[in-house]
């Protein structure tokens, strides 16, 4: 019977155990012999099965295979730890300040690839509360993202954060809604977050994961490897959670069919209104906008983009209206606003959008007064994990494009 022996010690040692030879010991990187204290552990190979037998066999390539595999797994674990670890160089003081923890900005100009992070930040801008972004990548105690700190209190879950801000600061967008309207808004929120969300996530992280990977912005020499690891992990998590939800049991075509039904439902509910519930903003607008924005600006060439920029053009106008009002530093290519398909010539959709921000049957003077240019200048300060504050936002601002867009609207 063959036995494998090992030595356990508190010091780093190199042990040479040969057949019918006395063992020799030395420190790593040294040829000198030293005294040692420890334990010799011997295990019969037949009890460890085929793996241990392969390790002590004379096939050197098997040993190399096991060592290489172990090294790769260790490297992957280390990189993942570096990606998800919390490295705060400066403690943030949340005294009378809202600190918003969320995922880092992607490099395609969209504020976030997470609908819930975009929802939370858009809501803070809608209620005109100053806040400070912190892109440290740390999840809340419940494992959620985004989450906020205010006066040393931590709150996660967008709906609970809304209630918290209303209780502490009196900030709410639903005060003008009747009880019936609030019930309708609640139903729409549930449909979007518990059903439409999964179909958009499937398109982002499963069906178009390579496109999503190219949008991630991770610094460092190993950024490509980190992005590959992150996207593949997220893709597996999304597929598993979709299966647990129930929607993951359907085929790809069936998932997209459900997505299309949800988007058509939203288009019907919106109609020609300015916002979902009418002429005034409500919290449901932050929810709907943040999810439709993913289809609008993060999924080029996909079925949801074709649908929202083609047949359901009122949803595209709705997203653009909110983007211009609350995200003036977030620029998009207006030439790509409407989807132009060479294979679809019968849809009857316009080739250009006549008026992106001003047209609405229920537009009011009150809303026009709220859209002053100074509205977005006092929203936030973004803080990277280094702790340095950035003015307003780290999304690039093209002043010339903004001026040209305003001139075109005035001339129109």
Automatic annotation (TrEMBL):
Show the CDD domains listed in the entry.
Answer: GST_C_Metaxin, GST_N_Metaxin_like
According to the entry, every stretch annotated as the Thioredoxin-like fold domain falls at 115-208
Q: Where is the Metaxin glutathione S-transferase domain?
A: 260-322
Annotated InterPro entries: FAX/IsoI-like, FAXC_N, Glutathione-S-Trfase_C_sf, Glutathione_S-Trfase, Metaxin_GST, Mito_Protein_Transport_Metaxin, Thioredoxin-like_fold, Thioredoxin-like_sf
Pfam families this protein is in? FAXC_N (PF19333), GST_C_6 (PF17171), GST_N_4 (PF17172)
Chain residue ranges for the region called Disordered: 367-412
Q: Which Gene3D superfamilies match?
A: 1.20.1050.10
Domain annotation Failed axon connections homolog N-terminal: ranges: 1-104
What does the entry list under GO cellular component?
Answer: cytoplasm
Compositionally skewed regions (Polar residues) per UniProt:
383-392
**What does the sequence similarity comment in the record state about its family?**
Belongs to the FAX family.
Q: What is this protein called?
A: Failed axon connections-like protein
What is the organism field in this record?
Triplophysa tibetana
């Amino acid at each position: 019977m063959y036995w494998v022996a090992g030595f356990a010690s508190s010091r780093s040692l190199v042990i040479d155990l040969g057949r019918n030879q006395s063992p020799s010991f030395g420190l790593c990187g040294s040829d000198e012999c030293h005294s040692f204290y420890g334990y010799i552990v011997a295990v019969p190979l037949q009890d460890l099965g085929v793996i241990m037998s392969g390790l002590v066999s004379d096939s050197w390539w098997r040993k190399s295979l096991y060592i290489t595999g172990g090294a790769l797994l260790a490297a992957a674990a280390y990189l993942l730890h570096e990606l998800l670890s919390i490295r705060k160089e400066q403690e943030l003081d949340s005294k009378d300040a809202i600190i918003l923890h969320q995922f880092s900005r992607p490099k395609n100009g969209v504020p976030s690839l997470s609908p819930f992070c975009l929802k939370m930040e858009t809501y803070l801008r809608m209620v005109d509360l100053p806040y400070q972004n912190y892109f440290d990548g740390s999840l809340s105690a419940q494992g959620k993202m985004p989450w906020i700190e205010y006066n040393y209190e931590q709150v996660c879950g967008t709906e609970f954060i809304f209630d918290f801000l209303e209780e502490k600061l009196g900030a709410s967008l639903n005060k003008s809604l009747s009880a019936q309207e609030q019930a309708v808004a609640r139903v729409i929120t549930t449909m979007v977050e518990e059903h439409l969300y999964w179909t958009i996530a499937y398109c982002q992280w499963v069906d178009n994961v390579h496109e999503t990977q190219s949008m991630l912005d991770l610094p460092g020499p190993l950024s490509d490897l980190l992005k590959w690891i992150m996207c593949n992990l997220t893709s597996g998590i999304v597929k598993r959670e979709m299966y647990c939800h129930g929607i993951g049991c359907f085929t790809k075509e069936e998932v997209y069919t459900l997505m299309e039904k949800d988007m058509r439902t939203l288009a019907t509910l919106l109609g020609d209104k300015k916002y979902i519930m009418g002429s005034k903003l409500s919290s449901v607008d932050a929810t709907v906008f943040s999810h439709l924005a993913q289809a609008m600006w993060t999924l080029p060439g996909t079925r949801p983009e074709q649908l929202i920029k083609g047949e359901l053009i009122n949803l595209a106008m709705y997203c653009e209206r909110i983007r211009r009002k609350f995200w003036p530093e977030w620029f998009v290519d207006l030439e790509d606003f409407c989807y132009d398909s060479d294979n679809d010539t019968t849809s009857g959709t316009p080739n250009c959008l006549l008026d992106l921000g001003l047209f609405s049957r229920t537009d009011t003077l009150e809303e026009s007064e709220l859209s002053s240019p100074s509205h977005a200048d006092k929203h936030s300060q973004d803080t990277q994990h280094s702790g340095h504050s950035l003015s307003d936002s780290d999304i690039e601002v093209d002043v010339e494009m903004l001026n040209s867009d305003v001139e075109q609207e005035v001339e129109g």
